[in-house]
TrEMBL record:
The keyword rRNA-binding does not apply. One of its GO terms (biological process) is anatomical structure morphogenesis. This is Expansin-like B1. Belongs to the expansin family. It comes from the Eukaryota. Residues 162-241 form the Expansin-like CBD domain. GO terms for cellular component: extracellular region. Keywords: Signal.
Length: 291
């Protein structure tokens, strides 16, 4: 009986806590959306996030420029579920990725034509919505499910060894990269990279040799790249960090000299499991020590 009672109490706690854990994904906002056109109806390769051609076809071209959600570039790559409110024409909605900054007439989203068409319940309805140009919508942020790990693309403006600029890609879950730091071996400390624009960060006169980076995820914790950018890094190259942002577990890592720090090891999750990821609380602050 005692065991059964404890089990029931524990189950009750889970039931009561679950809505709080998931609340960060359930917030729905009323707004308006319009669209922009390109020759193929897909994304703008000159978007302010710095994605270039990748931003044209990202998420099958279902992308959008955002205004208040831009957050000085921290909102780049965030995923939103957008649904229009014209009952006669609107379907279940479409998921879009923020790839650009732009403001319209009281709109939170200026969507690619391809994404805007996805709001319609059928091709005929989509044509009618396109004629209207601007529609009332509801939207909520949803977890992104990019394939693989966080990736780094060295920008074309980079020049080894004098200047290092990098684009951050594939940030999963409901997470923003709010800062990037580089390990300075000589000074034995982390130094911040500058956010140039969008999700592009740079560092003048980087140290010679391999480069170690870490990423601040949503002002909550630091995620250490599990691989080094090689010493012979080149502009245009893409490097896999072998690190993920999202639901994580903590591992204690022993370092030379008796130092210990906490390293986040991200779990492999299915798309449906991302919806169960909780926003991390104050007790999850992690400051990685010497790499």
């Amino acid at each position: 009986m005692e065991h059964s009672f404890k089990h029931q109490v524990g189950l009750l706690c889970v039931i009561l806590l679950f809505p709080a854990l998931c609340s960060c994904h359930e917030f729905v906002t009323n707004s308006r959306a319009s669209y922009y056109n390109t020759p193929d109806g897909l994304g703008n390769p000159r978007g302010a996030c710095g994605y270039g051609e990748y931003g044209r076809t990202l998420n099958y071209g279902n992308v959008a420029a955002v205004s208040g959600l831009w957050r000085n570039g921290a909102g780049c790559g965030a995923c939103y579920w957008v649904r229009c409110k014209v009952a006669k024409y609107c379907g279940n909605g479409v998921q879009v990725v923020a790839t650009d900054s732009g403001a319209g007439d009281r709109t939170d989203f200026i969507m690619s034509k391809h994404a805007f068409s996805g709001l319609g319940r059928n091709p005929g309805a989509s044509k009618e919505l396109l004629k209207q140009g601007v529609v009332d919508i509801t939207f909520k942020r949803v977890p992104c499910a990019y394939p693989g790990n966080i990736k780094l693309r060295v920008q074309e403006s980079s020049k080894n060894p004098g200047y290092f600029a990098v684009l951050i890609l594939n940030v999963n879950g409901v997470n923003d990269i709010t800062a990037v730091e580089m390990w300075q071996r000589g000074q034995k400390r982390w130094e911040p990279l500058r956010r140039v624009y969008g999700t592009v960060f740079d560092f003048a006169n980087p140290p010679s040799g391999e480069i170690r980076l870490r990423f601040q995820v949503g002002y909550k914790y630091w995620l250490l790249s599990n691989t080094l950018v090689p010493a012979n890094w080149k502009a245009g190259a893409i490097y896999d960090t072998k690190a993920r942002a999202g639901c994580t577990e903590i591992r204690e890592v022993a370092m030379p000299g008796g130092l210990t720090y906490l390293k986040w090891a991200c779990s492999d999750l299915t798309r449906s499991q991302w919806a169960e990821c909780n926003c991390f609380g104050e007790d999850h602050f992690v400051d990685a020590a010497t790499p």
